[in-house]
Write a structure and sequence with these properties.
- Helices cover 37% and strands 23% of the residues.
- The chain is an alpha/beta fold.
- A six-stranded mixed sheet has the order 2-3-1-4-5-6, with helices on both faces. A three-stranded mixed sheet has the order 7-8-9.
- It starts with a strand and ends with a helix.
- It comes from Chitinophaga varians.
Amino acid sequence: MHKAGFVNIFGKPNAGKSTLLNAIIGEKLAIISPKVQTTRHRITGVITEPGYQIVFSDTPGIIDPKYKLHEKMMGAVKSALEDADVALLIMDAKDSLEENLELFDSLRLKVPAILILNKMDNLSKEDMDTLMEKAKAWGKAKVVVPISARQKKGIKELMQEIVALLPEGNAFYPDDTLTDKSTRFLVAEMIREKIFQLFEEEIPYHTTVIVTQYQEKETLTKIAAEIIVTRETQKGIILGEKGKSIRELGTLARQDIEKFIERKVFLELHVKVRGKWRDNDLYLKEYGY
């Protein structure tokens, strides 16, 4: 009997959705940053084992839409609700249980759910036991699993529970598929991750990245990318004094990309100002939202 299904991850911003997806897949598919709202698209990771295939989706954190960009992010959450076979509801173990359960109730799920208490390493055993009891009392999850996504603790147990809930069916993707995203998309996300790591406050939220050239030469891969910002002042900050910041950004991103594609990379970055791109449907479409 072969099992296959779509398993989608839901939760508040920063609950650890992307870290969980990366811990399960073992490749760095979803970008991670301690700032909230790093994930803007549904990222699909695929795991194929003898006997089952799971297609995972990491959704943006559930928020109230402030910009058109946010509306598109919430659209990604809605479509994930519609095609899930199993829902993973993840929360930070230190966050308010009541608030999270209210949020999960509002999703009106029609499929079996697993409630995941993440960052369990931050709680004492006593507090964890109390939280587990309260979480089980909610009664709407098939099972409650404590994990630490960052330390990869509890992942094996979680996988067993997921497989148990999978419907019977044939595989959706060939055996060697890791993700349905293109390398270009993942490269752009790696550059965007570095912007989240290096720059303060609003800069990352006003920025998107497009890969304009991806050419595999004999000895290396040549990549050119545009960093899109909303104001000239932001462009100045990303460039830095005499181009210092953009060089640092380029070096860090290049190292990650080389590790990912296992080739030497020549990376060229340009910064462009496009006012209000987050509220412009044409720009959002062009940038893949």
